[in-house]
Amino acid sequence: xxxxxxxxxxxxxxxxxxAVLLILQQFRPLICKYARRHRYCYxxxxxxxxxxxxxxxxxxxxxxxxxxxxxxxxxRRAVDRVFKRESxxxxxxxxxxxxxxxxxxxxxxxxxxxxxxxxxxxQAVLSEIRELVRKCLDSLTEEEQRFLRLxxxxxxxxHDVAKRCGLSLSQPHKLTKAAMAKFHEAMGCxxxxxxxxxx
Length: 199
What we know:
This protein has about 200 residues and is mostly helical. The chain has helices at about 1-15, 15-25, 30-35, 45-60, 70-100, 105-110, 120-140, 140-155, 160-165, 170-190. The chain is built from ten helices and no strands. The chain is elongated, with a radius of gyration of 23 Å. The protein starts with a helix and ends in a 9-residue tail after the last helix.
């Protein structure tokens, strides 16, 4: 199978669109497998599929047809690598959001839970954290705030959120992720200006 794929790669590198389509069709099972596995990082399955397809296309144009590497293994590594990177970004992003929504945990992380509760510096920092989170939450709609609180503060699963709100299972995931992206953007605007919107 490696030889026909190499021929397709060579043709694709020369700009032949049909060869590109043949490669994507040949590796569709791999694309769908990874896209379904990492669907939680994206707004839709189609978006995840597009990410996998782009990873393969980049690999196609970087692949050296004169070397002895097996193309299918190179494609698998490329798709695996891009989704691992996206998964790490998503998890880091989620941790930042959940920390921001839990004032007490934020205070603990900043070593503000011990010592004199009346300490002016401690009170000032805690007040600043609360004000930052309040401003960011105020930038969301009531519905967005509700989904964030149910998911992050009450620690409900998407299934529980869907059941409580009378929605399909996919809707809470999409709505909560959109709310978190908006909240994270607000954190970047109100905070140190280094926030990065995921997605």
